Amino acid sequence: MSGSGWSMSGWGLSMSGVGGAMSGWGLSMSAEGGAMSGWGLSMSAEGGAMSGWGLSMSAVGGAMSGWGLSMSAVGGAMSGWGLSMSAVGGAMSGWGLSMSAVGGAMSGWGLSMSGVGRSMSGWRLSMSAEGGAMSGWGLSMSAEGGAMSGWGLSMSAVGGAMSGWGLSMSAVGGAMSGWGLSMSAVGGAMSGEFSLKKRSACGDYALLSLFLDLE
């Protein structure tokens, strides 16, 4: 450890063990001017559920500019996942998350988000599961100036009643200008789709298409 005045400029720690659960890990940290500019942590274990993970973070001027986290486990349900985030000027500009599991219902999914200022400009979410009812679905959204300009959603399921459907919507200036919905079901009643569109500024909506096959 080293320090100048009242601020800690940096220190490091490492440990290794043989014959125990923890085979080794390390930790490092550095701080300049009372603000932590960055640190990292890594750990690995053999003979236990967690085989290894790592964590890193950096902060400039008291605001966290970005950090990342990754983890992997062998012999447990979660085989690995990762998380990353970045923030500029106290506002989160974007982050992403991914996860995968082997031997469990969820085989993997991912999430990403980006925002500038105080408004979220867009994000996306996707998920897939094997061995469960839901085989996969995705969701995307974008917003500009505090108003949601459009988003879409899709889903598919294998082994369940609903085989797939999709939904999309767009809004300008806080008013919904139009949206559409489509759905298909295998072994269920509804097999068709319909869509709505705004006809006038007073809020009237016209039914453009409607087809339902009721069994």
Q: How would you explain this protein's 3D organization?
A:
By secondary structure, this protein is mainly β. The chain has a domain at 105-215. The chain is 0% helix and 73% strand. It is built from no helices and 16 strands. It has strands spanning 2-4, 7-16, 22-32, 35-45, 50-60, 63-73, 78-88, 91-101, 106-116, 119-129, 134-144, 147-157, 162-172, 175-185, 193-198, 205-211. It has a 16-stranded antiparallel sheet with strand order 1-2-3-4-5-6-7-8-9-10-11-12-13-14-15-16, with no helix packed on it. Strand 10 (119-129) and strand 11 form a beta hairpin. The radius of gyration is 24 Å and the shape is flat. It starts with a strand and ends with a strand. 0% of the residues are buried.
Strand fraction: over 45%
Query: What is the number of strand segments?
Result: 16
Biggest β-sheet strands, sense, barrel? 16 strands, antiparallel
Structural class: mainly beta
Secondary-structure element pattern, one letter each: EEEEEEEEEEEEEEEE
What strand line-up does the widest sheet have?
1-2-3-4-5-6-7-8-9-10-11-12-13-14-15-16
Number of helical regions: 0
